[in-house]
Amino acid sequence: MKLWQGLLCSVSILAGCRNAPPRPTCSTGTQAQSPTPASSGLATPELTDDVPLADDNAGLSFVADGKTLRTLTKAVIRRAFPVETFTVSDAYYDGRPKTWRAVSLRPLLERGFEGRTVDLDAQQFILRCVDGYTVPLDGKRLLEAGGYLALADATVSEWDPIGVKKDNPGPYFVVWKHPEQQGLELHPRPYQLAAIELAAFETTFPHVAPTGEPTDSAAQRGFGIFKEQCIRCHAVNQEGGRVGPELNVPQSIVEYRTDAQLKAFIKNPRTFRYSLMPAHPDLRDTDLAELLAYFHAMKSRKHDPNAVKPARTRNAEKSL
After folding, report:
1. Strand partners, 239
2. Of 113, 177, 294, 304, which has the fewest CB atoms closer than 10 Å, so is most exposed?
3. Does the predicted model carry a pTM greater than 0.85?
């Protein structure tokens, strides 16, 4: 089992995507605690050394080369780095203003990956959450000015639950400070963050690319869309997010759904059923066609390390 899998707890649902606010919560050890209803007007204590928070022992792990370099608790983080307070309109709260107490990501990552002689801006990262939500992100974007790790919600005594399922976003919630950084596609906001991994996309997900397809093919362009918008929630060949369903094994979705159904579902899932998966009005018909071309290419490139092997028959055993 990979190291990061030990840091997360697995949650399966029929369909979902972290662009949609509601999603399942999971709590293990010092990870996110059970949701607590918001208390209007009751602010959190000042983040000082002598005032503990309920989730002060929650750890954030920094991983490289499959090994945990270090794990910092919230108590350590808020003593070691300046805690800022700022207010932004938050997409996960229907655009309502939220006031966060947070630390800048850049000095935090420099401390977390201290001893690694690399230019962090030029690296690739994987942000992993306790429910399996998985965000690949370039260092240039992750370390962009305005990227913060929220440690507490300044407007309530605990964390303000998210969505209809009342998910607790703690203990760590990536937030962005500037108005132009509030779009979820370019500036994702993983909550219930458990680990930040220094890892190249190709190394972490070696079996999701349509290997052999021409560089300028529809399948390769669809792969680009999958990397940008889908892999956070969905896996292909058991590699990727765990919030939504696996899309390629044991059967590809294009093997049991028509292209027309899939395009319509991706565009607006709620015309089919009430689902946690969000609509994608931004995807053009050409985008959807390229995404389906990627799925069709991958159905002949299955890799399923967890496949159940057929039981040997008695005659087969005698022949051994």
Report:
1. 236
2. 304
3. no
Distance (Å, whole) CA 33 – CA 241:
22
The tens digit of pLDDT for each residue in 266-280 reads: 999 989 987 778 888
| Cis peptide upstream of residue 161 (ω within 30 degrees of 0) | no
Contact between residue 94 and residue 88 where contact means Cβ atoms under 8 Å apart: no
Q: How far apart are CA 162 and CA 29, in angstroms?
A: 21
Determine contact, residues 25/16, Cβ cutoff 8 Å: no
Quick one: tokens of 284?
Answer: 């053009």
Domains of the chain, CATH where assigned: 3-14+21-203 (3.90.420), 205-298 (2.60.40.420)
Q: What is the rounded CA–CA span in Å between residue 190 and residue 204?
A: 18
Copy the structure tokens of residue 164. 């209809």
- pLDDT tens, residue by residue, 277-318: 888 888 999 999 999 999 999 999 999 988 876 665 545 544
- Crossing angle of helices 285-298 and 259-267, in 10° steps, is 130
